[in-house]
Amino acid sequence: MAQIDKNTVSAENQLKENEYIKFYGSGTEKKILFVGNSITRHGVKEEIGWYWDFGMAASCEDKDYVHLVMSEMNKKYNASYCVCQAGQWEINYTQPEEALDFFTDARDFCADTIIVRLIENVDHTHYNDEIFRKNYPELIKFLNKSGKAKIIVTDGFWRHPADSTIKEIAQIKGYDFVTLGDLGELDEMKAIGLFAHDGVAQHPGDLGMENIAKRILGKLL
Question: What is the rounded CA–CA span in Å between residue 165 and residue 192?
Fold first, then answer.
């Protein structure tokens, strides 16, 4: 069974529609936009045993990859950041226009660095590479209001048919690329045994989050 099939956490309703965007800090030296899915931020969902509002399945907010990255960045810069939960874009990637309407506040944040860490909720059983290849760069273009932001993209924590396409797009567009798929094949990188719901437990635990953060920081610092 592919690792991605073990993720049984629905991409639907990970956050309420008015909560897709969240801002942190007030620094102006660096403005970083994180674009992701449940690994980046998932709201409370008691029916699957998730009672928090941060990256699934870190043990606390400070241990998810977003906050680990920003902890290091704030040692060097007076930074602020925005989290854009884009799970709705993933499940609607073939017709993303409606989802983009929810992300205008993230676009207007005018980040100088954009980190796009999503793919896992794009349907891998009926994946359309031609459409993804067109709409993925369009998502980044939409969020990059100035057209001048540094772009960092990653492949999936669980391997996905689009991984090679993301890497190819990065090469063509000049984005920095971070690979993560090897982490998702290691049980020690997950939260196995810490959550009753297997889908939650398949998400990166503290060690997985730490390694995601380290790899992203390698493109930032």
Answer: 29
Distance (Å, whole) CA 199 – CA 213? 21
* Locus of tokens 């669980």: 158
Q: Give domain limits for the chain.
A: 3-217
Encode pLDDT of 87-143 as tens digits: 999 999 999 998 899 999 999 999 999 999 999 999 999 999 999 999 999 999 999
| CA dist., res. 136 & res. 91, Å (int) | 12
Which class is domain 3-217? Answer: alpha beta
**Upper half-sphere CA count for residue 32 (Cβ side, 13 Å):** 26
Q: Full-prediction pTM beyond 0.70? A: yes
